[in-house]
Amino acid sequence: MSGSLAIQTAIRVGARPIALTRTSQKSDKLLAHGAAAVLAVEEVDVVQQVKELTSGTGAELVFDAVGGAGFSRPG
């Protein structure tokens, strides 16, 4: 599932999608697909920004469509 499809799915179920991307180059595209906000993980403190965007609540669900080196299995 691509990021844009994940955004559309989130909207369909009534969620407020916050998209993450490595740099801000894709921000306009993700916003055009319906992301409520876009965070460039190499440019901002993601945890702090998510807290601010959710009034301190944090994310209820995190979906990673790519995985990669930053995605590790515990223990």
Describe the structure.
- The protein is of the alpha+beta class and 75 residues long.
- Helix content is 32%, strand content 11%.
- It contains 3 helices and 2 strands; from the N terminus they run αβαβα.
- It has helices at residues 3-12, 27-32, 46-53, and strands at 18-21, 37-40.
- The chain has a two-stranded parallel ribbon with strand order 1-2.
- α2 links the parallel β1 and β2.
- It is globular.
- The model has no long low-confidence stretch (mean pLDDT 87).
Question: How are the elements arranged and paired?
Answer:
Blueprint: H1 3-12, E1 18-21, H2 27-32, E2 37-40, H3 46-53
**How much helix is in the residues?**
25-40%
Note the overall shape: globular
**Arithmetic mean pLDDT:** 87
Amount of beta strand: 5-15%
Which structural class best describes the helix and strand composition? alpha+beta
Q: Order of SSEs, N→C?
A: HEHEH
Low-confidence runs of at least 5 consecutive residues: none
Q: Strands of the biggest beta sheet: in what spatial order?
A: 1-2
Total E-strand runs: 2
Q: In DSSP terms, counting alpha (H) and pi (I) runs of 4 or more, how many helices? A: 3
Radius of gyration: 12 Å
Largest sheet: 2 strands, parallel
- What is the CA-CA span between the terminal residues? 27 Å
Protein traits:
single chain; 75 residues; alpha+beta; two-stranded parallel sheet; 32% helix; globular
